[in-house]
Amino acid sequence: MEISRNEELVLRYLLSRKSSGPVRELEITIKGLSDREISSAVSWLESKQLIDIDKEVNTRIQLSDEGLEFIESGLPEENLFLLLEEKGKVSVKECMESLGAKNGKIALAQLSRFGLKPKEGEISLLNAEKVKSEIDERKKFLQSVKSGNGPISEEQVEHFRKRENVITIKAQTTRLASINADGENYLKTHKDVDRIDFLTPEMIASEEWRGKRFRAYDLNTPVERIQSASKHPMTYLIDKVRQIFLSMGFREMKGHYVEYSGWNMDALFIPQDHPARDMQDTFYLNATKEFEFEHPEILKVLKKVHESGMEGYPGWQYSWNEKRARELLLRTHTTVSTIRYLYENKEPPLALFSVEKVFRHESVDWKHLAELHQIEGAVHSKDANISTLKWLMRIFYESLGFKDIKFLPSYYPYTEPSIDVVVKINGKEVELGGSGVFRPEVTRPLGLKEPVIAWGLGLERLAMIYYNLSDIREIYNSDLDWLKNFRLIP
Ligand code: PHE
């Protein structure tokens, strides 16, 4: 262990003083060091156990407003007593007139404790000796408090403590420092005054550091641990997912929270009476003004394919309502971004992905959220087929550390075939999302020439396994302990 020059100065001073004394005194006596430097040196010396610090608690008594006033114009009981000495008898009325209502009351109350109580409206002088000596004691006490020297009687402190607004009592802690045996020993065994604590540019230029000893760093000095800023576990996971797709050459797309039903549903061949379009499942916007539908040319196309299909495909066979396609909603899935992006960029081959938020009118429970993220993706290519899709899903989850993947047949109005992706972990099977090959009723009307495979996977479900959470809501609880110490499972 080494000590700094400042610490050494303080330690040497304490050695010369020997006896324990207030830290404040060091600040006054040690020249050339600021109060802060001294107090920091004292703290270091204390943590290095070279000095002892004791605490002394002192009470400080001061006069309050009335105490000051009583010194100026006499204690109320004193003034009443003087009046009694002069007249022998004083009526309550006279007392009040002479002392004022407030002090008059105090005087009466104080003197009545000595038996000087009003009888039939008059007080007579009694026990004069005793009263006089007590009043003298009280006056002396107030004087001593005022001057800050002279004896302080405990009895008087007790007395005035109970009287309102005469004195205030404050506790004051003084830190006392003294050098201990280890400190003395340290100074005996370390005599190198010529040591360099701080190397300055000037010292380097003048080379005066040559031949001198440097202060060593003490790597064992205890320092407080600080928590540096870190990524939120979800940000961490999102970045990881993005990295996987980007490294495979996928292009990242960004969509919008607010979408047209026409793009979110109709363009994906979801019939207008589909239960997922219900208000029970979807947040619709209460738009007061009608917005221009983006790419209105598709409305005609959608009407045709929904109502009567196309060559070889019968469509849904119902009367399609354009108004419903124009309604605004909070997107319920990011497949809306995929279909829009593909329409705006029709040239294959194209590999797309996004990790973005979607909204569902769900009641929140341990495995459902109303606001969640989807890992969306699609490949538009002549080579896109169900095997490519399964292969991609495997690669993706394997990159995250999940080796055991299962596919289940499923159904979505816009894909055929459709498969759900299930991850097996610790004997449990967790459904992570849907995927499939877009139906011709989706691709052909929008002018997409090659097959499209697509998927939409739950990010929060994945996070539950990834971070070993039993309740999906824990992700957004902002539990600081978890945020600081989260561990990855696979
Ligand atoms: N959009 C579907 C969902 O939200 C998932 C999906 C995406 C299914 C793409 C098939 C194709 O659950």
Task: Describe the protein.
By secondary structure, the protein is an alpha+beta fold. The chain contains 20 helices and 16 strands. A hairpin with a 2-residue loop joins strand 14 (415-425) and strand 15 (428-438). Helix 1 (5-17) crosses helix 3, helix 4 crosses helix 8 (128-147) and helix 6 crosses helix 7 (101-112). It is elongated, with a radius of gyration of 44 Å. The structure holds phenylalanine. Phenylalanine binds next to strand 14, strand 15 and strand 16.
| Largest sheet report | 7 strands, mixed
**Apparent shape:** elongated
Give the overall average pLDDT. 91
The strands making up the biggest β-sheet line up spatially as: 8-11-12-16-15-14-13
Query: Which stretches of 5+ consecutive residues score pLDDT under 50?
Result: none
The set of bound ligands, ions and cofactors reads: phenylalanine
Task: List the defining traits of the structure above.
490 residues, alpha+beta, seven-stranded mixed β-sheet, 20 helices
Write the layout of secondary structure elements.
Elements: H1 5-17, E1 21-22, H2 23-29, H3 35-47, E2 51-63, H4 65-73, H5 76-87, E3 89-91, H6 92-99, H7 101-112, E4 122-124, H8 128-147, H9 154-162, E5 167-179, H10 181-189, E6 195-196, H11 201-206, E7 213-214, H12 233-247, E8 251-252, E9 258-260, H13 261-264, H14 297-308, H15 322-326, E10 328-330, H16 335-344, E11 350-359, E12 371-380, H17 386-399, E13 405-412, E14 415-425, E15 428-438, H18 440-443, E16 452-458, H19 459-466, H20 480-485
Parallel strand pairs: 6-7, 8-11
Antiparallel strand pairs: 1-5, 2-5, 3-4, 9-10, 11-12, 12-16, 13-14, 14-15, 15-16
